[in-house]
Each structure stands twice: as structure tokens, then as C-alpha cells.
Amino acid sequence: MGATDPTKPGDEAPPGTPGAGENLCPACSGTGKIDGDTCPECKGTGKVITGIGGG
Ligand SMILES: [Zn+2]
Description:
- By secondary structure, the chain is mainly β.
- The strands form 2 sheets. The protein has a two-stranded antiparallel ribbon. A two-stranded antiparallel sheet has the order 2-3.
- Helix content is about 0%, strand content about 25%.
- The structure holds zinc ion (ZN).
- Zinc ion binds near residues 25, 27, 32, 39 and 46.
């Protein structure tokens, strides 16, 4: 569909989901890389979509 921000493995929710938002990727601490390789959880963006609130 030509999405510009496809869901990443580390995302807990698709972009635009109410109550969810971007947060630093816990796998790479927001660096986008792990041991010199692109972080698979955030695809190298350093950010993942996680739920907000709810406790
Ligand atoms: Zn990452």
C-alpha cells in the first residue's frame, strides 16, 4: 500500500492507534543499532510504537 511508516517488529500497535505513541526502542535504547547492526525491533529507527496509559 506504500505505507511510509510500516509496522515494525517492536511495535505494540500500528501508527495512529489511539492511546499508543512512539517511544524509544528498548532493544537498542533508541540508537537504532545493536552491536553495529540495524536493530530488528525498530528497523533502525530507534523508536517503536507502544501503548500509553492503562496503568
Ligand atoms: Zn531498536
